[in-house]
């Protein structure tokens, strides 16, 4: 897992993916089979959202925090501070449609066909730089923002220590859900 490796922790991606709890709610665990057809929505093979990813990353000693409605300026601040950010987009940062979903336990969330995670590693005034598996590519900010918004600007960030947090850093607990 590239994000963890950036922070000095080697995690086998297959092992990592097999450690998620299973659920029909992507906010609580992995939905479906990781080898199922891509592009489906729960309860069919889908994937997992930010909170279970952050919880699992913390078991490896990483101070990961799941956030929703993460402001674009906060994302830029993380990247400018040298901390890559895992984000949830659709496809390879493509257009998508949010779909309301109710899990078997009655909890509600938003899902989207072709839900996908990528890591934001850089940006300039026109484009965002993305690490997607072995690929690195750029997307126009407007395209990135539309794709990221489909699942509510969901992300996993590394919580900075108080000593290293820049003065403009907004702690995720202060952000609206």
UniProtKB/TrEMBL annotation:
Domain Peptidase C39-like: 8-132
InterPro entries: Peptidase_C39-like
Pfam families xrefs: Peptidase_C39_2
This protein's name: Peptidase C39-like domain-containing protein
Organism: marine sediment metagenome
Lineage: unclassified sequences, metagenomes, ecological metagenomes
């Amino acid at each position: 897992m590239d994000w963890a490796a950036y922070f000095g922790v080697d995690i086998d991606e297959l092992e990592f993916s097999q450690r998620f709890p299973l659920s029909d709610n992507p906010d609580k665990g992995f939905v479906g089979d990781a080898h199922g057809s891509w592009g489906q929505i729960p309860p069919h093979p889908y994937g997992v959202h930010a909170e279970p990813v952050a919880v699992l990353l913390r078991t490896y000693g990483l101070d990961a925090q799941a956030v929703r409605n993460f402001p674009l300026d906060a994302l830029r601040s993380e990247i400018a501070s040298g901390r890559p950010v895992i984000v949830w987009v659709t496809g390879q940062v493509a257009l998508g449609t949010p779909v309301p979903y109710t899990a078997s336990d009655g909890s509600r969330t938003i899902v989207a066909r072709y839900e996908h995670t990528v890591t934001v590693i850089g940006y300039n005034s026109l484009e965002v730089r993305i690490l997607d598996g072995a690929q690195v590519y750029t997307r126009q900010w407007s395209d990135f923002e539309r794709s990221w918004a489909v699942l509510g600007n969901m992300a996993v960030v590394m919580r900075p220590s108080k000593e290293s947090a820049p003065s403009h850093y907004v702690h995720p607990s202060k952000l609206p859900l």
